Amino acid sequence: EVQLVESGGGIVQPGGSLNLSCTTSGFDFSTFEMNWARHTPENGYEWLSNIKTDGSVTNYKESVKGRFTISRDNSKNTVYLQMNNLKPEDTALYYCAAKIPGQRAYAYRGQGTQVTVSS
After folding, report:
1. Closest by alpha carbon to 78, among 10, 39, 30, 38?
2. Burial of 119 (0-12, 13-18, 19+ CB in 10 A)
3. C-alpha 68: how far from its chain's center?
4. Closest-CA residue to 89 (of 38, 47, 26, 50)
5. How do residues 27-52 score in pLDDT, each as one tens digit?
């Protein structure tokens, strides 16, 4: 059974930090590109970042570049998203998703972890 379980969300004040984790099982993690995305009722789906299979290449949405850092540990089948200098507009449901390199659609995604940025 494929599982992607996000954790690390919570309530944080503006300017604060959170480190999200996505622990996976049931598929060959090291062969999948991993992504982080978020969803809000107002704005819908928003892709944030991805990291290639060996971690050598990362990409970010412009609005989070310099604040968010994606990383992965293939020995632990886990991908991370370090989020710094959080803003109220970062409030969303954050989820990770796995994609086969070269394909457009996600193969798997988690249920998400809620991040709320509020004073």
Report:
1. 30
2. exposed
3. 10
4. 38
5. 999 999 999 999 999 989 999 999 99
